[in-house]
Amino acid sequence: MIFLILFFIAYSLAVFLINNLFVLIGFTIFNIILMLIFKINFKKIVKNILNILIFTIFVFLFNLIFSPILDCLMLAWKILIVTNFAFIFSSVISKTKLAEGLSKLLYPLKIFKVNPDEIAIMLVIALNFINIIQNEIKTLKLSLKARNIKFNLKTFFTKSHIIFILFFANLFKRVNVIEKSLILRGLKLK
End-to-end distance of the chain based on CA atoms, in angstroms? Predict the structure, then answer.
């Protein structure tokens, strides 16, 4: 388990650190091969990519302020590669095994009086954050539908203030609930 977690971390870092187009194509092909090996439903992968697409577009648009368009496209592609790999990783490994493996990996931090179990739980929540975003997008679509607003690229750009307010308000609410539940379980987050 520790080896798989280290591989996931190394893979994610490599994707973000390497700026070669051919290497990114290689990472994309590797993701496709993993999907075929683990027989992950292609519809679930497409749904995962579509759900993270809003976040990716937001990062792309924000990055346009500071970087040229090609760099922004590369960053968006990297985000999609890593989130897709995280989806494959979390589909194959159970959350309990993942938490145990992370706790063992971080055990040396006890020397510095850091509780590895707390960090492991927080990292597992971070990996499940994609699912949280998916749920918030569903909620957003339902709330927009109730206001007779269709959710597409046109509404995304013309009514983006409504979309961002609803999305982030619900997201912060969900994070707040998770924080309270962790505190009730005895974790000191502050």
Answer: 29
